[in-house]
């Protein structure tokens, strides 16, 4: 079974709705670093912060279920 790794800003104590999931720790930390630079104005994401973020990463055996968008129906299909 494939492992997935996830984290959210809230997991790390930050008031932000960002969350991410990946197939490796490195992927999730990279997502966090990109988010921190783009959305929180952080210039650096050093080893200390990466280690602290890793301590909040959760491991799961399954990827979360993402609901697919439903196709739109036009009126002729409904009537």
Structure notes:
The structure is a single chain. The protein has 79 residues and is of the alpha+beta class. Helix content is 35%, strand content 15%. It has a 3-stranded antiparallel sheet with strand order 2-1-3, covered by helices on one side. It starts with a strand and ends with a helix. The model has no long low-confidence stretch (mean pLDDT 79).
N- and C-termini, Cα separation: 45 Å
Please work out how many helical segments DSSP would assign: 3
**Strand-pairing-aware structural class:** alpha+beta
Helix content: 25-40%
N-to-C series of helices and strands: EEHHEH
Strand content: 15-25%
Biggest sheet architecture: 3 strands, antiparallel
What would you report as the Rg, rounded to the nearest angstrom?
17 Å
How many DSSP-defined strands? 3
Given as residue ranges, the uncertain stretches (5+ residues, pLDDT < 50) are none
Shape: globular
For the residues shown, what is the average pLDDT?
Answer: 79
Task: Strand order, main sheet: write it out.
Answer: 2-1-3
